[in-house]
Write a structure and sequence with these properties.
GO terms for molecular function: metal ion binding; transmembrane ascorbate ferrireductase activity. Its EC number is 7.2.1.3. The chain has 211 residues and is mainly alpha-helical. The chain contains seven helices and no strands. α1 packs antiparallel against α3 (45-68), α4 packs antiparallel against α5 (113-137) and α5 (113-137) packs antiparallel against α6 (143-178).
Length: 211
């Protein structure tokens, strides 16, 4: 399969994951509203922002730089950095939503494996963006230093994408357990297919940027 075909599959599974996530949050979980006085609606901002805003845009940024935009390198670099910055902003909103929900429900913060992976990933992602901005946008260091740093930047970006996918998968399972879903409920199936779509999005993004 060509790199273009693999990229198309990444887009397909990313969009499918967003659709399934919206079905879950709007149809089964009572909607999305950051300013609501009803905690579950506030919480629902978290999974939406962390996948649609954070993981999906981060994956799109990786593909945009590698092969998605037929234009000069500097333009692709700007698009890459801008999409990652927007992903960070969405991530901040998503994290704010879950902390707000925990305050409303008197739940302890950062207590689960999901939260540890998620917070760690987000912090490292922010450092990766700052490093990339100063090293490649502002051209810090010599040409040789940038060439060596680029390889670590690429490897780090792909690792962070899979860390983010891992956080999403553990988050879906944690929420499923928290709300007490039974294995054969339709909502459980929606969550499972959402998780599969997110995983396949990460797999095909990784494959597309590896060509």
């Amino acid at each position: 399969m060509s790199a273009l075909g693999i990229s198309a599959l990444a887009h397909l599974f990313g969009i499918l994951a967003i659709i399934l996530l919206l079905v879950w949050l709007l149809h089964y979980r009572e909607g999305i509203d950051f300013d609501s006085h009803y905690g579950p609606r506030v919480f629902n901002v978290h999974p939406l922002m962390m996948f649609m805003g954070f993981i999906f845009l981060a994956g799109e940024a990786m593909m945009a730089f590698r092969m998605g935009i037929p234009t000069e390198r500097n333009t692709r670099k700007i698009v890459h950095m801008t999409l990652h910055l927007i992903a960070l902003i969405f991530g901040i909103v998503g994290l704010s939503a879950v902390f707000k929900f925990h305050d409303m429900a008197n739940i302890v913060d950062v207590y689960s494996l999901h939260s540890w992976i998620g917070i760690g990933t987000f912090c490292l992602f922010g450092l990766q963006w700052i490093f990339g901005f100063f090293m490649f946008m502002l051209r810090g260091g010599s040409d040789g230093t940038r060439a060596r740093a680029l390889e670590w930047h690429k490897v780090g970006g792909r690792a962070l994408l899979f860390m983010a996918v891992c956080a999403a998968e553990t988050g879906l399972m944690e929420k499923s357990s928290f709300i007490g879903l039974k294995p054969h409920q339709k909502e459980s199936h929606v969550i499972n297919f959402t998780g599969l779509a997110i995983l396949l999005f990460g797999v095909f993004v990784n494959m597309s940027v590896g060509f």
